[in-house]
Amino acid sequence: MELEEVIAQRRSIREFETKPVEKVKLEKLIEAARLCQSAKNRQPWQFMILEDGRKDQVAEIMLQLFESHDEELPGFVNSSRHTAQIMKNAPVLMLVFREPDELWTPGDLLSIGAAIEHVCLEAVNLGLGALWIRDTEYTEKQICAYAGYPQLQLVSAIALGYPAEHPAPRPRKAPEALLLPFQGR
Question: The Nitroreductase domain covers which part of the protein (predicted)?
């Protein structure tokens, strides 16, 4: 598939088929991330691929947020409930970690974002769907402990599998709305 077509077809997939993802495709996703550019070539990312009960346990950790709260939690925290269900229904959950380093936080996070986008685009290229997940933020420490890496920072997660939906493109800003005119001297 041509790159422009891959970019145009990329969608956030929230419904997946039950079909497992082949190991060779998971290896290609990691290779796409590995080849990503990074600030000062730090390559700050580390990935973990979870399937079956292990990914479901991560979703359960996220759902524990709601066990002691009858009312809605503040802000976007409530989206974690829906995201956890998506994670349970996806065949694969990829966790994305980094070693904490305050001096490198902005550069590392930008680099990891680029690596995640490589994974999401390669997923489309391989006929897979992906959902880039931020909701792990609210239970990061518990998920890191469960995974056996309490010293790492969980930056994000990606739900992966064969798409069971084909959503229409979401509205995008016009190109002219993205470009700022120079107003300096």
Answer: 7-162
